[in-house]
Amino acid sequence: MRINHAILIRTLPADRLEDFVNDWLAQRYKDYHSHELWRGSGDMGRDVTGYVTGKRMEGPWDNFQCKQLNRSLSEKSAFIELGKIFMHSADGAYSLPRSYFFVAPLGVARSVQQFLAHPERLRQAFLDKWDSDIADKLVDKKTIPLSPNIEAKINAFDFTKIHWLDSTRLANDAACKPVLVKWFNEDPGPSPRGVVPAEIQENESAYISQLLKLYSEIDSGIYPDVAAALASVEFGTHLRDQRTRFFDSVAFDRFYRDSTPTEYLNTFKDEIYHGVVEIHRDKHQDGLTKLSQVMKQAAVIQPSGVLGKYAGPQVKQGTCHQFANEGRLPWHR
Fold first, then answer.
1. What is the average pLDDT across 193-210?
2. What is the rounded average pLDDT for all residues in the chain?
3. How far apart are CA 4 and CA 115, in angstroms?
4. Which residues pair with 142 in a beta bridge?
5. Which residues contact 183 (CB under 8 A, 6 or more apart)?
6. Do residues 163 and 103 lie in contact, with contact meaning Cβ atoms separated by under 8 Å?
7. Cα–Cα distance between 91 and 302 in angstroms, integer?
8. What's the whole-model pTM score?
9. Buried b (16+ CB within 10 A) or exposed e, 82-111
10. CA distances from 249 to 16, 87, 113, 314 (A)
11. Cβ proximity of 52 and 98 under 8 Å
12. CB-based contact 298:275 (threshold 8 Å)
């Protein structure tokens, strides 16, 4: 039975929801240069912020306001949260965000949804209700009037940039999958097989050059290039097998880099390395024998975690070719 992650997100305590959103922004590296978690008093209306550039809050930024409630986010509560942003921006604490997101696992009230669908109506209602619903709720025991500076900030902001996310929308976001794996043990599933291109690619040139040297050690000087090795009865199939392993490992890396937290793939590779490094260090008759023994060992390693579950022999063997590429476990020095 498939886990309902939206329900699990709704059960998170308020501070854990902020942590969850912070982890989600960490996966959105194509959208944000960096991110920051603001917690407790003095957050000035910010729970989690995503920075578009290295200038952080002095450049474009997005605000994610987390509201873990036992009901949908009400119109009054939404207006108060927005009011904090305009008040602090008018005071010079920070520039207005590029976008503003309510992260409300149980969703927003229908009136909030209607306002967000009509941004200019939202702006006008926000201004109209400042005195009655917002002014005395921004600072404890104090009323904040709609000053010219605050009103100018409200009029300058693009209200089409206010959005809402409930737990279903959040869980279904593609960048959230690694977070679901980390937080709720979501199974990312098997990776696709690699596709071996006909032409030698730049990312495989290092380990293949090393293989050609190993072949030449056995038949001195007759394997100067890939074409010669592929045409060889003795080594043609061997080279094709190594390329299959390498590209299976590349496809594996690409898939799990996008679908699991970064440390999962790093741990997997460390376990493969430590599983074969002593075999690699042993004295062998020749380099090809060393490669063969390392490949046999790699095939039987059982890495931990969900990546170990889906790593077939060829992926683990291809990972060793990645180590050769990097100079970490070279086949030929």
1. 95
2. 95
3. 29
4. 139
5. 8, 20, 23
6. no
7. 58
8. 0.83
9. bbbbbbbbbeeebebbebbbbbbbebbbee
10. 35, 52, 46, 7
11. yes
12. yes
